[in-house]
Design a protein that fits this description.
This protein is mainly β and about 130 residues long. The chain has one domain. Helix content is about 15%, strand content about 45%. It has a 9-stranded antiparallel sheet with strand order 8-7-6-5-4-3-2-1-9.
Length: about 130
């Protein structure tokens, strides 16, 4: 299983890009900002992320949209190392899948991570849509 330090290196100061949004994992203060797109279905989440001694990366965030304001919830992903590959699954019972191989494989989930806060402008756009009074 990856150490907390190794896990931190996978996420810190990186943007995880999804099909319809992204999440940014800040380095120092462990701030987490995420968003999904859509004029009427935009949503944003703000909170914190952390790594645990038992190979998990957890996100403590509250999602909100124009019509929904959620409570802060924790979502965790477990990690394990198998034959030199870091595998990941969504807890509590997601399927294990390849997260990062050495050498990298085009299908690795970690290839969807970009260095830095690359989607800050899109997060702000989604936040303005969600928080607008119209």
């Amino acid at each position: 299983m990856p150490t907390p330090y190794e896990l931190q290196l996978l996420y810190a100061d990186r943007t995880w890009v999804w099909k319809n949004g992204a999440a940014y994992f800040a380095r120092g203060n462990r701030r987490l900002e995420a968003w999904t797109s859509g004029q009427d279905s935009a949503s944003v989440a703000e909170g914190r992320w952390l790594v645990t001694k038992d190979g998990k990366m957890c996100m403590d965030v509250a999602w909100r949209s124009k019509s929904y304001k959620g409570k802060q919830q924790r979502t965790c992903y477990s990690h394990q190392i198998k034959d030199g590959t870091i595998e990941q699954r969504k807890d509590p019972d997601g399927e294990w899948y390849s997260f990062k191989r050495t050498p990298e494989d085009p299908s690795d989930e970690h290839r969807k991570f970009e260095p830095g806060d690359t989607k800050a402008a899109q997060f702000e756009e989604a936040r303005k849509l969600v928080d607008s009074k119209n």
